[in-house]
Design goal:
single chain; about 350 residues; mainly alpha; 2 domains
């Protein structure tokens, strides 16, 4: 007799959850334009939450004062340099956006050199004929995406303002609504924060380091527009697997193809031994300093993240992989009752 009310209650429960999930899906779908801003504000929130607590608890600042100070500081140290870098690069490549012929000629020079020297042809005539159209299509898209990032800054700071002023309610909500024990909830919270900090700071610092190293090398070997190519090399450091090689390798081959064999070989060796090594050395140091993240997790996470969420996948791709591993360990501990420590 009691099974029928329980069954009816279960149906109501499931129906309510399905309706709730459906509403969440509809809202997230129609707020897709805000995903980048939400992830950006979350990243800055995690990076600055410790400083905000220090100012409000240790220094006894008002929450609003501490929030304004952090907003100004992050803008000056992170977003303003990013804005000027992107703006400078866009201004320099604007002529190529309007007329990609120099790029096509450079690719032809590289292709002809490889074909005559090593009997290797990377670009067929059919591919070369399509390059111009591809450049005219994709370069404006790159310009547009960079402008979209800049236009999202106001939305990022609008969200960040409310998040920093509500740190305690946010942390309380996470603790009260977590399906795990308090100890495991705090562990996930800590791991998530460390992973985001490690990847966000790591991507930023590595790009700066490799840009500086590349600029120095390009000046030494007399590369035209060394500053521009160095900055582009720094930006290319975020490309999975290939990284900075996507820039210094074509520069090296192009120099050799135009008769500057010594300069081309020098750029190749510098890129391979100095620029490439700086990536490995500083990445290892940052991972040891900020969080113990295996390089394989970083690579897989970045590949997954970029395809899933675009630019912000550089930060959150590895974080999701790490979070998956952490949740699996907690699942084993809470439900399978293994003796392994987290």
């Amino acid at each position: 007799m009691e099974s029928t009310p329980k069954k009816h209650q279960t149906i109501q429960h499931v129906t309510f959850l399905v309706f709730l999930i459906f509403l969440v899906y509809v809202i997230l779908k129609h707020l897709a334009f805000m995903h980048g801003a939400l992830l950006g504000s979350l990243t800055l929130f995690i990076l600055s939450i410790g400083s905000h607590k220090y100012l409000t608890i240790k220094k006894k600042w008002k929450k609003s004062y501490a929030t304004v100070f952090i907003l100004i500081t992050t803008f000056l140290l992170i977003l303003l340099p990013f804005y000027f870098t992107i703006t400078f690069i866009v201004q320099q490549i604007q002529p190529l956006i309007e007329n990609p012929e120099p790029i096509i000629n450079g690719l032809k020079t590289i292709n002809n050199y490889l074909a005559s020297r090593f009997d290797v042809s990377l670009l067929s005539p059919e591919i070369m004929s399509k390059v111009g159209g591809m450049l005219q299509n994709y370069l404006p898209q790159i310009l547009s995406s960079s402008l979209n990032v800049i236009s999202n800054l106001l939305l990022i700071y609008f969200i960040l303002w409310f998040m920093l002023n509500n740190i305690r309610p946010i942390e309380k909500w996470i603790k009260n609504n977590s399906p795990f024990k308090l100890k495991n909830t705090l562990f996930i919270y800590k791991e998530f924060g460390l992973s985001v900090k490690s990847n966000a700071i790591g991507v930023y610092i590595l790009a700066i380091v490799q840009a500086i190293v590349a600029i120095v090398g390009y000046y030494i070997f007399g590369v035209q527009e060394a500053l521009v190519w160095g900055l582009i090399t720094g930006v290319a450091s975020v490309i999975p697997i290939v990284g900075t090689m996507a820039i210094w390798m074509p520069l090296s081959i192009y120099s050799m193809a135009t008769g500057d064999i010594g300069i081309g070989v020098g750029i190749f060796l510098y890129g391979l031994l100095i620029i490439g090594s700086s990536d490995n050395v500083f990445r290892f140091i940052l991972q040891k300093k900020l969080a113990e993240t295996h390089p394989l997790i970083t690579i897989i996470g970045v590949l997954f993240g970029i395809s899933f969420m675009g630019f912000w996948g550089l930060v959150y791709g590895p974080v999701i992989i790490i979070l998956l591993i952490t949740l699996y360990k907690i699942y084993l501990k809470e439900y399978v009752k293994t003796e392994d420590k987290i």
